Every structure is written in structure tokens, then in C-alpha cells.
Amino acid sequence: MTTSDSAEDQRPTRRWRHLLPSPIEAHPADCLLTPERAETFRQVLARRTERLAVVVEDCHDPHNATAVVRSCDIFGVHRVHVTTGRSRFKVNRRVSQGAHRYVDLNVHADITEAYAALRKDGFKILVSDLHADAVVGPQSLAENLAEQPLALVFGSEGYGVSQAASEQADGFFLIPMAGFSQSLNLSVSVATTVYSLRALALTADAPGDMSAERQRAWYDSWLRAQKGEAVDRCVAAVGDGWVPPPDPRARLEVDKRGDELETFGTD
User: Fold this and answer.
1) Which residue range forms the structural domain that includes residue 55?
2) What is the Cα–Cα distance from 247 to 99, expressed in whole angstroms?
3) What pLDDT is stored for residue 182 in this prediction?
């Protein structure tokens, strides 16, 4: 290694075990990305699942919120629903490193609204809780996931899930524990649960279930998030009429340590 090597040059190269077929045709703004970046966008989308959703109720800690979103992105879970009735959802931009821009982040005023949106899309809703009828072990839900999309609900750090979240759910699940402590940090709970359900697909480097139409729309959205108005100029130059999907509309704030937070939800 020479002294002229940059930090970027020293990063390990992302290698896919194999390239999955992508339904995303050439985009007018592909020229704005390196070929490697364009390929990464297509390959990530090809592995995304929309049959599994994570729901977080009133998370008040930006680091927990950011870790939840990063875990979903890393394990290929595209749909994240958050409620902001008690606490706004704040993502630490430095910690996130943009991961929150690569998931479908849906913000709701309360859990009833979140459940209505999920049920409209055919999801069965299960709450993480020490309930007598809870399914033990998230991996035991794999059979349910094969039959119907699943939304897994996690409560806030201090309060757990609300009574409304439990009463309106379709069932319960729990993470078995063998130590003196009987609770996990919110972001750890999400990561443990999601990985237990995604491990086989990740190990096999299997394709996801996102539709071709959704992959194309999100590819366009990611392009616009990175390149802004330059995408419009490329589209206009070829006379194409691409319409971007709606953005999460986050609000930028700065915390006491100077970290930038993207805040979702209303005051």
C-alpha cells in the first residue's frame, strides 16, 4: 500500500455471490452513476422483500431508530412503519450513512393508522410481547410468512407496546432468552427477529419478492435522492416521462452534539 492510497481505495469491494436478473431497464440518468453503483442499486433491489415489514411504535432514541433502519436495510427488509404519537422518529444522519433513504419509511400518527395501512396491503400483524399465546422464536413464523405477508411490531424503549397495539394485533411472538435479563434493546430485538426470518434467503443469496414495477420506481427514487435535478435533465433530454415516487419528507435538525438528525412526524 502506498501513501497515496485513499480511504475509499482501501475499502473492501462489494462482491455478490452471483448477479441476479434485474427487471430495471436502462435509465436515462444511469450516466450519473458509476457502473458499479448502478449495478449495486439493481442488485440490492433484486434481493429486497416486501412480504416482511417492521413496525416501531414511538421510538424516542435517535440511535435506536437509526440502528433499526440500518438493520432493515442490511437484511433486505424494505418496508418500515413508525408511529410518532408520543415521540418523533429521529434518524442520525452520521450513523445512518444514508440507509434510511434506501427503505420505504412510512410515518403514522398512531398505531391504528399504521395497522390500517398494513391490513390494506394484506399484512398479518404480530406484536413482540410476553403473551401467553405468543409464538416462541421468530424463526417459527417462517411458515406464516410463506402464506401471508407479516408485519412485526416492536414497542418503544421505555413503554413497550401500547395496549392499543396489542388489542388490535392478530397475534404475538417472543424472542426466547436464557439469561438473568429478560429484555433486549429495541434495535437488537429488531435485528435478531429480522435476521432469524431472513437468514435462509441471505445465506442462499436468493432473489427477493419486490415487483418489477416497484423495483423500477425505487431505482428512480434512489437516483433522484443522490443526483437531484440532474436526473430531470437527463430524463428531459431523452423525452421520457418518468414520475418519481413520493419522498418521506423528513425535516432536518441538529442535536446538542452537532449530529444531523432527519426527523419524521409532526410536532
Assistant:
1) 32-264
2) 14
3) 76
